[in-house]
Amino acid sequence: MNIPANLKFTKDHEWIRIEGDEAYIGITEFACSELGDIVFVEVETVSETLPRETTFGSIEAVKTVSDLFLPVSAEILLFNDALENAPELINKDPYGEGWIIKIKVSDAAELDELLDAQAYAELIG
């Protein structure tokens, strides 16, 4: 299972890649394996500022529909438009082209509460 060391993770299987005061968010390879083939992603919160652990969208797979949770308080800047026509990018490249949203972090201190790669690896066993 690929767990990149440069990312932070949540117990809900989202990842976050920090780039200054902005960041990209997606779901982990583990989440992809649990969900199966992803067929649709919905994010209707672009331009909203939300507290951490708030639902920012949903992801639909062949097996189920799951909510997507914000790892930190943030303003949602951008949805990855490529996912509208190719949601399978999340399965193919969850940590790269399969990113879901770009955010502006509201409280950088919240990042310290997220899991590093080793802690996430222990979580998923």
Question: Which CATH class?
Answer: Mainly Beta
Describe the strand arrangement of the main beta sheet, using strand numbers: 1-2-3-9-8-5
Number of strands: 9
Q: Which CATH-level-2 architecture? A: Beta Barrel
Poorly predicted runs: none
- Looking at CATH, which topology would you report? OB fold (Dihydrolipoamide Acetyltransferase, E2P)
Strand fraction band? 35-45%
Q: Work out the helicity level.
A: 10-25%
User: Alpha-carbon distance between the termini?
Assistant: 10 Å
Number of helices: 4
CATH superfamily: RNA polymerase II/Efflux pump adaptor protein, barrel-sandwich hybrid domain
What's the multimeric state?
single chain
What is the count of distinct domains? 1
Q: Which features does this protein show?
A:
three-stranded antiparallel β-sheet; alpha+beta; 125 residues; OB fold (Dihydrolipoamide Acetyltransferase, E2P); six-stranded antiparallel β-sheet; 4 helices; 18% helix
Describe this structure in words.
The structure is a single chain. The protein is 18% helix and 35% strand. It is α+β, with helices and mostly antiparallel strands and 125 residues long. It has a single domain, classed as RNA polymerase II/Efflux pump adaptor protein, barrel-sandwich hybrid domain (OB fold (Dihydrolipoamide Acetyltransferase, E2P)). The strands form two sheets. It has a six-stranded antiparallel β-sheet with strand order 1-2-3-9-8-5. Strands 4-6-7 form a three-stranded antiparallel β-sheet, with no helix packed on it. The longest helix has 8 residues, at 117-124.
